[in-house]
Amino acid sequence: MLRIGLIGAGRIGHVHARSVTANPGATLSVVADVIPEVAAALADRYGARSSGDIDSIFTADDVDAVIICSPTPLHVPHILAAARAGKPALSEKPVAMETTAVDQLRTDLAGLDPIVMLGFNRRFDPSFHAIHTAVEAGEVGTVEQVTIISRDPAAPPKEYIAVSGGIFKDMTIHDFDTARYFLGDIATVSAVGQNLDPGLADSGDFDGAIITLTNARGASATITNSRHCASGYDQRLEVFGTQGSLLAENLRPTTVRRSTAEYTEAQDPYYDFFLERYEAAYAAELNEFISAVTQGRHPTPGIEDGAAALRIAEAAGEAARTGRTIAL
Ligand SMILES: NC(=O)c1ccc[n+]([C@@H]2O[C@H](COP(=O)([O-])OP(=O)(O)OC[C@H]3O[C@@H](n4cnc5c(N)ncnc54)[C@H](O)[C@@H]3O)[C@@H](O)[C@H]2O)c1
């Protein structure tokens, strides 16, 4: 039974607390947050203890491993603190706000060889994972084009956007990892940023984006993002190869199709957001973390996957600002 210390009791902290509690191989020991009442509210829900002292988590006797759900600028210091304490860590994405911070992290981790997993949960989505398995088995031949549609139902609060690193590092980072999952190392990045939402006009960030990535072989990934999808959380993936294609459509709460005098074949709207849509993915991600910790091996995705996705995000930002294609 892996005893978990959860750091950061916000949106994704709630998702992981639920996932840990539902997993027979783990137990939620403690929830820590700089706001003690926020930590206590989440801990109480699952019968864990709570703490407002983050540092105490790294030395706690009842914590075997940590899940880092703190704001992005704190991922590097929290990964480092866990590594120094000898506690495996599952850290939320992105690994850091800047590539330079990852460079420093590598230096600081030298000689520690910690178990660190990055929370790119979409690799563990049953449908996306099934597509990956089929691609690896050669079902569609050589991959030529990957198409990723990833639209959020609503933008996060502006205060969150301001400290998130922007759309490419905060939101598209998942899609950059998905692109790497199918194409490997990315060679070029081009991007168009959109400012179409008047409500976010003063946020200093894009509210939509189209990004094209290519690998050294010339295979491409096209990513379409929006922060305001009226029909819900729109998450689709297609992989096109020389022998065919594989398509994962949106999930819905039920498969019921309703037909009436007003409409035919109407279905439930898409899942509302990440908690529901990727519940199975978070559970499978946690299984992989638990199994890696139990077996003492390094899980995938790890810090270097986080670093590679972050480099693409930085290049996408430059590409959108300058209109140039960036070679990595
Ligand atoms: N994988 C996913 O699907 C996914 C989804 C959402 C967010 N995230 C990532 O998770 C991280 C948190 O995002 P969120 O949406 O939960 O944010 P949030 O603002 O809802 O929650 C962050 C929490 O961290 C706490 N906090 C602040 N400073 C802290 C500190 N020094 N130590 C510990 N806790 C501290 C805050 O009080 C807050 O409760 C971000 O890096 C984000 O990119 C990942």
Order of secondary-structure elements? EHEHEHEHEHEHEHHHEEEEEEEHHHE
CATH-derived topology of the largest domain: Dihydrodipicolinate Reductase, domain 2
The number of E-state strands comes to 15
Task: Provide the structure class.
Answer: alpha/beta
Shape: globular
The stretches of 5 or more residues where confidence is low (pLDDT under 50) are none
The tally of domains stands at 2
CATH level-two architecture of the largest domain: 2-Layer Sandwich
Spatial order of the strands forming the largest sheet: 12-11-7-10-9-8-15
Q: What would CATH call the class of the largest domain?
A: Alpha Beta
Keywords, separated by commas or semicolons:
Rossmann fold; binds nicotinamide-adenine-dinucleotide; 12 helices; 328 residues; 2 domains; 24% strand; six-stranded parallel sheet; seven-stranded mixed sheet; alpha/beta; Dihydrodipicolinate Reductase, domain 2; globular; single chain
Provide structural commentary:
This protein has twelve helices and 15 strands. It is of the alpha/beta class and 328 residues long. The strands form three sheets. The protein has a seven-stranded mixed sheet. It has a six-stranded parallel sheet with strand order 3-2-1-4-5-6, with helices on both faces. Strands 13-14 form a two-stranded antiparallel ribbon. The site of nicotinamide-adenine-dinucleotide has 24 residues, from helix 1.
